[in-house]
Design brief:
- This protein has helices at about 15-20, 35-45, 60-75, 145-165, 200-205, 240-250, 270, 300-320, 365-370, 390-395, and strands at about 80, 85-90, 100-105, 115-120, 185-190, 215-220, 230-235, 255, 275-280, 340-345, 345-350, 355-360, 375-380, 385, 405-410, 415-420, 425.
- By secondary structure, the chain is α+β, with helices and mostly antiparallel strands.
- Strands 1, 2, 3, 4, 5, 6, 7, 8 and 9 form a nine-stranded mixed beta sheet that branches. Strands 11, 12, 13, 14, 15 and 16 form a six-stranded antiparallel beta sheet that branches. The chain has a two-stranded antiparallel ribbon with strand order 10-17.
- Helix 2 (about 35-45) packs across helix 8.
- It is globular and about 70 Å long.
Length: about 425
């Protein structure tokens, strides 16, 4: 067999070099491990002041998209949109402007070439603290979004490089008949996730390949704080074939399996269309959705480990013969009396009339550790809407201590989401 191979390298645009951010070139190799230094450079680039937090619909979000398109090209992918890397995403009239998705292709081969896996991560974040401000922001004047979700983009890039690392998986096409079939891969960096999953929703309406040919989706969001684990693989229940593949790829990493439909991230846009979808994320962290979510808040060795798990998982799934069996996620239902031992660590503002407003937080409680603040108005917990104290209590009792739930709050004019690892009431006495 004689197949020529592309050797993709990562580079950096001139303005990035001016920042002192060096992106380390790394040769492709079929068993290439994830490189924490390379991922750190990518996160540093995406969280630089020049990108001002990558707010949806801003010129800084588009600049981030251009940078990711360059990285996709240098990783050996092909443009997904008729020769273009970018797809414009219209935003609602009250927001104005347009967001952008970036997508690239790693072709498959054989009888599975026309079947697809989507691997995605959102590129946007919350932008500037003062959305009306202009010019390059100083530290504390923007939301860097290192863990949410520059880390996810860095992991996505590793998976892309891994997928194009040999002549049989990427680079120049090789159609050796004896090689096993593999699905094609569609790598997507979604815009406008933070304002309602708008990028992935638009992508699902106007996909570059027919959705009927998409067998599964894997979403990387908030994967930068693994620590001692576990890695949360939400959505295992959406596909019969997922569990074995995830456990095989994890190579001993502790896993947790919450319900995928309980989390609002880009995988939901695919679940809603009957496509099996996994949402990979790590633990809650205090810097989330704050100006302190910088590179220093990322567990780089843990991120590299998550990227390696994802690359192995993608290689397993793209080679599997036969259909992926979609199972609609079951609705969350509480036990008759609920779980009364689950602890959130907040005190409600009983004088408030605008929902479950948090008056105070236990300093070492689950909500404070995840980054919630006094004054936040909680609007949903674990996918269940919350309008008052009674609904908050009912939603909380659906979950057990140790569960990781998505909590959505209104903070001023922003709607923010956090991952909270629920505690046990006995913790309050320690």
């Amino acid at each position: 067999m004689n197949c020529s191979v592309q050797n993709p390298r990562l580079g950096s645009p001139l303005w990035l070099a001016a920042l002192g951010v060096i992106v380390i070139a790394q040769p492709a190799h079929a068993t290439m491990p994830a490189d924490p230094a390379l991922m750190a450079a990518e996160i540093a680039a995406l969280t630089a002041p020049q990108l001002a937090g990558r707010g949806a619909g801003t010129q800084e979000e588009r600049a981030a998209a251009e940078l990711i398109a360059r990285w996709f090209s240098e990783a050996g992918l092909q443009p997904a949109f008729a020769g273009d890397w970018r797809q414009d995403v219209p935003l609602p009239p009250d927001l104005g402007g347009r967001s952008v998705n970036v997508a690239g292709i790693a072709p498959g081969r054989g009888g599975l070439r026309d079947r697809w896996l989507v691997v995605g991560a959102h590129l946007d974040h919350l932008g500037r603290v003062d959305s009306a401000a202009t010019g390059e922001p100083a530290h504390g004047e923007y939301y860097p979004g290192a863990g949410d979700n520059a880390a996810g983009i860095a992991a996505l890039l590793h998976v892309a490089r891994h997928a194009t690392a040999s002549a049989t998986q990427g680079g120049e096409r090789c159609e050796e008949p004896s090689l096993p079939a593999r699905r094609s891969l569609l790598f997507c960096a979604f815009g406008a996730e933070e304002i309602g999953l708008l990028g992935s929703a638009h992508f699902a309406v106007e996909p570059p390949v027919p959705l009927a040919q998409v067998d599964a989706m894997i979403n990387l969001d908030a994967v930068g704080r693994l620590g001692g684990g576990p890695l949360h693989a939400a959505g295992l229940e959406s596909c019969v074939e997922f569990a074995a593949a995830v456990h095989a790829a994890s190579e001993g990493l502790p896993l947790a399996a919450p319900a995928g439909a309980a989390f609002q991230s880009d995988h939901v846009s695919f679940l809603a269309r009957g496509i099996p979808s996994l949402f990979l994320f790590t633990s809650a962290y205090p810097e989330m959705n704050s100006p302190a979510d910088s590179l220093a808040a990322v567990d780089l060795p843990g991120l590299a480990r998550v990227a390696g798990v994802t690359a192995r998982l993608v290689e397993d799934l793209r080679a599997r013969v036969g259909p992926f069996t979609f199972q609609a996620p079951p609705p969350l239902s509480p036990t008759p009396d609920g779980n009364r031992q689950t602890w959130f660590g907040s005190t409600p503002d009983f004088a408030g009339r605008d929902g479950y407003r948090i008056a105070a937080l236990a300093a070492d409680g689950p909500a404070a550790q995840a980054g919630l603040q006094a004054g936040d108005v909680l609007v949903s917990l674990g996918g269940t809407p919350v309008a008052d104290l009674a609904e908050f209590t009912a939603a909380l009792r659906q979950h057990a201590p140790g569960d990781v739930v998505e909590v959505v709050v209104e903070r001023g004019r922003r709607r923010l989401s956090f991952l909270v690892t629920l505690g046990e009431r006995s913790q309050r006495l320690r």
